[in-house]
Amino acid sequence: MTDTAGTAEQGQGGAAGDAGTQEPLDAQEQEGAQEAAQRLRRRTAWRAAGRALARPPMDLSLGDRLTALATEAGSVTALDRPVDMYGDGVVTDLEERIADLLGTEAAAFFPTGTMAQQVALRCWAGRTGNSTVALHPQAHPEVHERGALGAVSGLRTVHPTSAPRLPTAQEIRDFAEPFGTLMLELPLRDAGFVLPTWEELEAVVAAAREREAVVHFDGARLWECSSHFGRELPEIAALADSVYVSFYKSLGGISGAALAGSESLIAEARTWRHRYGGQLAQQFPAALSALIGLDQELPLLPSYVAQARMVAGVLAEALPAAGVGWSRVHPEPPHTHQFQVWLPYEADVLTEASVRQAEETGVVLFRTWRPCDTGPGGVAFTEVTVGRDGLEWTAADVRAAVADFVARLP
């Protein structure tokens, strides 16, 4: 902290003799440097910790990721085959694997999920003659893509509901405006990784079809939905006209996504992928890591979901017992292996406690906290993910970690 303060003082002193217009820039630079230092501190603490509920690939070093890819690649393909060129080879293998897993006629690999969904929704707008997409206001395209659907693809979005859940069948039937596509994010991440029941999902899809709309699933986290629905992936995917899946969120891949659907849709999507700049020369690192994730992580996701339910239940009991006046675990029980925890403190205070716990005890219970956009002021939330490392945790481990974390709060 002394070095940071000294740097700030030097920066302020140096700016005193310069033109006043330079001072805001210096302040922004200092703020950016401080945030970068804090981000590095967090990542260093989490990476060095001996115990964690999950270890996302972003915690690993570049060397770690390269070593893991080189070690595991031979388990999913022959390493003496030619590298891919513009989507053949191992990329084609991955596409065929996805179509088989989801029970669709075809699938196309995309470098990003944002591009995959842009292309899917653009294709459906042309096929239905209606460029309006009905989706949730907390869906990924509305919150995390800088208005790309309208700015890039000329699509218009409408919201059948603003409740922190996916729309009901009645809300779809009663919605006043026509739309060509209904997009459902499964699970709805920003609302707490929430899912409808299977019966509710069937009813919503049926309601959309009554309106002659097509249905697209944002299935970035579809892989872990089977436990909640009690259905296998092909049965879930069969409800929709197209499905997008991600390879890095739950499967631990480097990057990339796939769009799955009919042969004709995917053929058209490949054309638009090229137009959008997604026809990359070589993509074998992303494709290989996706295939490895399908082999190694996909079979374990049901056990992660089961363990997340145990962890969430203990958190709901242990936080009040440790002295926190109010808390919320949402949803309870979790619908997938991810859920939210809400506490009545400022986000910076909670993040600092999380980092200190990792630094001083080697235990990662929570990670970064963010202010709640809804609900009472002075409340922050974090997202909890239970992965392979979390399978080792007992209820007693969770209680002990909660007590230690709460003791670090003011």
General shape: globular
- What's the tally of helices? 16
Task: Round the Cα radius of gyration to an integer and report it.
Answer: 23 Å
The main sheet comes to: 7 strands, mixed
Derived from helix and strand composition plus strand pairing, the structural class reads alpha/beta
Overall average pLDDT = 93
End-to-end distance: 20 Å
Q: If strands are numbered along the chain, what order do they take across the biggest sheet?
A: 2-8-7-6-5-3-4
What sequence of helices (H) and strands (E) makes up the elements? Answer: HHEHHEHEHHEHEHEHHEEHHHEEHEEEH
How much strand? Answer: 5-15%
Helix content: 40-55%
Tally the beta strands.
13
* Low-pLDDT residue spans: 1-19
